[in-house]
Amino acid sequence: MEVTDTMTLTVLTPEKTLLECTVSRVSLPAAKGPFVVLRNHAPVISSLEEGDLVYTSQGKEGRIHVLSGFVEVNENRITVCAEV
User: Fold this and answer.
1) Model pTM?
2) Which of 24, 69, 77, 79 could hold 48 in an S-S bridge, CB 3.0 to 4.6 Å?
3) Buried-state track 25-51, b at ≥16 Cβ within 10 A, e below 16
């Protein structure tokens, strides 16, 4: 995977920054159904419901269980504010 195939994922909780890394793919438990974010995804803001946020970073899959929150996707940056 080349650097040009990546995005920045930041996961914030009320207590701290839980995660900040470079990813190639993120799956999110949105309120109207899960969706996947790949590079150059259209800008979007969505609320999140309980479920797993699944991301791929350097070929490895990571998972964070989210209780609720919201996500903003803009210019290959994914910012999640969530209760975990």
Assistant:
1) 0.92
2) 69
3) bbbbbbeeeeeebeeebeeeebebbee
